[in-house]
Amino acid sequence: MIWVKGLHVIFMVTWFAGLFYLPRLFVYHADVQDAVSHDRFLVMERKLFAIMTIGAVLTAIFGLWLLVDYAWAAWSGSGWLHTKLGLVAGLVIYHLYCLKIMREFRAGTARHSHVFYRWINEIPALLLIAIVLLAVVKPF
Fold it and tell me: What are all long-range contacts of 49-54, with beta carbons under 8 Å and residues at least 24 apart?
C-alpha cells in the first residue's frame, strides 16, 4: 500500500505543478498584443493542460485505490476525510475552470485582465495547504 501512496503523492505533485503554472500563463497571455505570442501561449497552455490532466487522473486513480483499500475503512467516520474529499472536488472544478479559460483564449473571448488571473492563481495554493494539512494532521 505504501507504493500506492507514493504514486498518489508523485502524481499529485505533477498535477499541482500544472495548476500553479497554467494560471501564470494566463496572466502573461492576457497581456500579449501580437499574434505570434498569442499562438505560442495557446500551444503552451494546451500542452501543459494535457500533462496536468494526466497527473490529475492518476492522482484520482491512486487516491481512490487508497480510499477503497484502506482509508475509508479506517477514517470514514472522521470529518477531516470528508472535508479533504470536498476540497479535492473543488480542485477538480478549478481544473475544469482552467479548461474553460483556455478555451476562451483560443476563441478570442477572454475578457479578464492579468490582475484577475493573478488572483485565481492563488486558489490552488490555498487548496494545497488545506488538503495537505487535513491529510497529515487529521484535526477532526
Answer: 49/18, 49/22, 49/98, 49/99, 49/102, 51/14, 51/18, 52/14, 52/15, 52/17, 52/18, 52/19, 52/22, 52/95, 53/18, 53/95, 54/14
